[in-house]
């Protein structure tokens, strides 16, 4: 009788084999999903970091050049800044100095003069239309906006640069 029982339990049934395959497949799919989700988030964070670094680089170069010029050599237009013979403008997602790229991932570039005596917090800086003679010739506002992230939000970096010595 013992011998008969041992012969019946030698292998797995087809149902047991299919159940094991389903369980293994679910585990593999779960691990793969976690890996893909992590990789997608890492790529997104890397892109956002690149945009932020480009904005900081562009603002640093521009600020340095503005402060090194004589204030009388600064000409301000809405999307263009002339510093003596140097021209800053944004085109095709890049901040350009004399046509050469300074920083990438730029969605928009604005530069203007603030009203005389105006005091702003950094989050309030904006280029608004001014009445002639109301502009402060010793300061400029520079606003760089980066390309949008996956959530559709973009980074904005702004600064008021004082050109008085």
Write the layout of secondary structure elements.
Blueprint: H1 2-8, H2 14-68, E1 74-77, E2 80-83, E3 86-91, E4 94-97, E5 100-103, E6 106-112, E7 139-148, E8 154-162
Antiparallel strand pairs: 1-2, 2-3, 3-4, 4-5, 6-7, 7-8
Count of individual helical segments? 2
Count of the domains: 1
Strand order in the largest sheet: 1-2-3-4-5
The geometry reads as: rod-shaped
Protein name: Prepilin-type N-terminal cleavage/methylation domain-containing protein
InterPro entries: N_methyl_site
Keywords: Competence, Membrane, Transmembrane, Transmembrane helix
Pfam family, one: N_methyl
A few lines on this structure:
This is Prepilin-type N-terminal cleavage/methylation domain-containing protein. Helices cover 38% and strands 29% of the residues.
Structure characterization notes:
It is a single chain. By secondary structure, the protein is α+β, with helices and mostly antiparallel strands. The chain has one domain. The chain is built from two helices and eight strands, in the order ααββββββββ. It has helices spanning 2-8, 14-68; strands at 74-77, 80-83, 86-91, 94-97, 100-103, 106-112, 139-148, 154-162. The strands form two sheets. Strands 1-2-3-4-5 form a five-stranded antiparallel β-sheet, with helices on one face. A three-stranded antiparallel β-sheet has the order 6-7-8, with helices on one face. The chain starts with a helix and ends with a strand. This is Prepilin-type N-terminal cleavage/methylation domain-containing protein. Keywords: Competence, Membrane, Transmembrane, Transmembrane helix. The chain crosses the membrane at residues 12-37.
